[in-house]
Design goal:
This protein is α/β, with parallel strands linked by helices. The chain has 9 helices and 14 strands. The structure holds pyridoxal-5'-phosphate.
């Protein structure tokens, strides 16, 4: 993976680093997209060039994730927050019960949104362990007739990730994959709905991808706005209204880049290696620590603290001076967080580890 000298290693949790070839292509095409003499932002979404881009992006995503014809793939305006509000409107009839498995703050927020429309049953809540582990499946309290089971495969703030798909409920599984989608292969057939905001592994903020099993669509509540009604958006190829065309375009470039990298198996291998070496550096040191149980540590978001938090500020300043940016942890957790999405090159992780070792040697 290329990395120009003037670019920093950006560990932001999102909006996050994008692949350099994607940025370069967007730059090269900005004034003249496909010989049109216009940028992609300046053309109609109904024109043949954009319709072709939309079809190409869907086809590439289907190929990358192995999505069958049993599913619609939608590109929807807004982020994951709008998507988790849309889930109950689309899947839960009035008076229905919905199951939520909480392993961090995004799951909590999704459950709070669902509570506006349905009776929410909390299947299990990791808050008791400060979200440092996934509660044991034996302790999960599923409801008998849930409209769906919602969970967050990767909790971006606390860095807790499921490394397999929970297999406990007959209700359709709904997954907020915002911070893990496309980081490795997944078996889409295990899910009823997968959704993800774009600004981590897909592209630029402003768009979300939603993959929904076709038989789950068509039953949205009558008060559901058309722009978030899965059936309405599916029958209109995600263009019932004007889509965020530039964000969609960037997603299409990112999907092509992923395919050129060798697809999800190759990226998954690289992501596993990146995460393993950073966790090893943390665990091998008496100065840095990560509280998450080993079997549920995230490959994408690695929070860590310094033994002496009065050094946090100087750590961040020196890291930034060394070209390692956006390492400040989320305000709910404190300390540091290194996000290692697809576009973070392995060289960035190596540079971070070298910096951490040197910092510990001189300050620790
Ligand atoms: C797992 C997860 N879900 C939901 C969201 C909210 O996404 P958005 O801000 O795009 O609505 C985020 C944002 O970081 C996230 O990490």
């Amino acid at each position: 993976m290329t990395h120009s000298a003037h670019r920093v290693f950006n560990f932001s949790a999102g909006p996050a680093v994008l692949p350099e070839p994607v940025l370069e292509q967007a730059q090269a095409e900005l004034l003249d997209w496909k010989g049109s003499g216009m940028s992609v932002m300046e053309v109609s979404h109904r024109g043949s060039d954009f319709v072709e881009l939309a079809a190409h992006s869907e086809a590439t995503l289907r190929e990358l994730l192995g999505i069958s014809d049993d599913y619609y793939v939608l590109f929807l305006a807004g982020g994951a927050t709008l998507q988790f509000a849309s889930v109950p409107l689309n899947l839960a009839a009035a008076g229905a019960t919905v199951d939520y498995l909480l392993t961090g703050s995004w799951g909590q927020k999704a459950a709070a949104e669902a509570a506006r429309y349905a009776t929410v049953n909390i299947v299990a809540d990791g808050a008791g362990s400060h979200f440092t582990e996934i509660p044991a499946p034996e302790s999960w309290k599923l409801s008998e007739h849930a409209a769906y089971l919602h969970y967050t495969p990767n909790e971006t703030i606390v860095g807790v990730e499921f490394h397999s798909v929970p297999d406990v409920s007959t209700a359709p599984l709904v997954a907020d994959m915002s911070s893990t989608i496309l980081s490795r292969p997944i078996d889409v057939d295990r899910f009823g709905v997968i959704y993800a905001g774009a600004q981590k592994n897909i592209g630029a903020a402003g768009i979300a991808v939603l993959i929904v099993r076709k038989d789950l669509t068509g039953n949205a509540r009558k008060e559901t706005p058309g722009v978030i009604d899965y059936a309405t958006m599916a029958t209109n190829d995600s263009m019932w209204n004007t889509p965020p065309t530039f964000s969609w375009y960037i997603s299409a470039l990112v999907f092509d880049w992923i395919r050129d990298q060798g697809g999800l198996a190759a990226l998954g291998e690289r992501n596993r290696r990146k995460a393993e070496k950073l966790y090893a550096a943390i665990d091998d040191s008496a100065f840095y620590s990560n509280p998450v149980r080993l079997d549920c540590r995230s490959w994408m978001n690695v929070p860590f603290t310094l033994a002496d938090d009065s050094l946090d500020k100087v750590f961040l300043q020196r890291a930034a001076a060394a070209g390692l940016t956006n390492l400040k942890g989320h305000r709910l957790v404190g300390g540091m967080r290194a996000s290692l999405y697809n576009a973070m090159p392995e060289a960035g992780v190596d540079a971070l580890i070298a910096f951490m070792e040197e910092f510990e040697r001189t300050q620790g």
